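Predict the 3D structure for this chain.
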Amino acid sequence: MLALGLWGIDRGGMWRDEAVTFQVARRTVPQIWRLLHGVDAVHGLYYLLMHAVLALHPGEVLLRLPSVCAAALATGLVAALGTRLARPRVGLWAGLLYAVTPMVGHYAQEGRSYALVAAGAAGATLLLVRAVQDGGRTWWAYGTVLGVTCWLHELAVLLLLAHAGTLALARVPAGVWRGWGRAAGAVTLALLPMVVVSHAQSAQLAWVREPTVETAGALLREFAGPTSGVYWACLALAVLGLTRLVGGRGELTCAAVALPLAVVPPTVLMLASRLTPLYVDRYVLYALAGAPLLVAAGADRVAELLGRVGRTAGPLGRTDRTTGPLRPGRRQNPRVRAPLLTLAGVLAVALAFVHQLPVLRQDRSPDHRPDNLAAMSTDAARELRPGDPVLFLPSHARSTALAYPAGFRGIRDVALAAGAPASGTLYGREVDPDLLRRRLAGLDRVWVVAEKRFVRSPWYPGDPTDRAKLDLVRDRFALREEQARDGVVLRLYVRRTLATGSLVRPVRLRPGRW
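Done. Predicted structure below.
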């Protein structure tokens, strides 16, 4: 997992969410604290952690390195779960399968908190298993790890429901329920301040849409494998792994831990999103750990069946239903057969890796992310000159200039009233619409950095300043040139004549500029 995470980690550009982490984490601690009172409280602990990391060297590699390390840790924890709940080969297969899953690799190379949350969730699940099997001596560690994980992202609290499902399937005694209940209560109480503050900031999720049946199917494919061959093979093995869902009273089986972990958090979040849309697949990345455990448990079941066939077969594993063994020979030693079966499982995971290699390779391209702010900054540096007026539409399109300021050095940000750090906001505080109109009144040309989906669709913003930008640009200026880069466009507008509405003759441009 560490090798896959480091492969292509410096892909040459951040996308918008990573850019937020990058520019917020480089602020001072008081500035970060001020920001969290108005926005992004759910990511506060992560921003403080990244503030310490980026103090060593502010760069894209170091921005993503904590996620790579967290993914490697999560992989080891998944393997430890499989080993403890079943046997070492189950842990080996589950860990390897988790490592080669493209969704894991995607967020292992993202400068956001989701890989860290996945590692914390896997660690808390392992501590739950230890607490049940060892007589409840580690409930304090379980509560501590899960509490920190929930502070990295509050929706990790759904892990409590998954763990409750595990305890119910295992039919644990009342003493275990009491110990778990105390730990769960402590986690919930510790999370209440975050819930109160983030609820007041819920407008940040206005872009989230209600999940559909297709959404659930897409998540299942991401968990089991995006390519058809791997998907159907993993799905079949996972179903086979459910044959040992319930063991003896108080016994934790691999399926009893893996099934609630993989199913409960996404299902609960999707159902809750029918009332208030909250579901985004990355918010339940931590639930993916259950999928490879189920698949490995199913593969172990197949290996056991093959072992039984080998033991009941003839001396060389060949039988004839009428005459018995076909020819005499020496039985295969079970101690030799077990490593061969383990190796066969490793080779099967390697085959899955090769089958998904094009997906993994494509994911390491900056063009595979929603936008590439570094490329847009390069385009801006080629076209913009010091003093050029620029509008960012909507305001969060300013993240390009905040993450890569070199491409916008010396420009005139027409709508900006106060910078992002000074105003305690993510993208800066903008002027009111009246002042914006006065600033644009004396301009014959203006550059617009905008998200493509906003300028090429019948979108009308809710923010009054963004509405004023859009109305003024559409009514008083005409498009002269456009450069598009992934989800971001750079446009040059020139003023229309007041009398005829025709285009003003543009200034003669230098050869080769366009």
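The longest strand covers residues 477-485.
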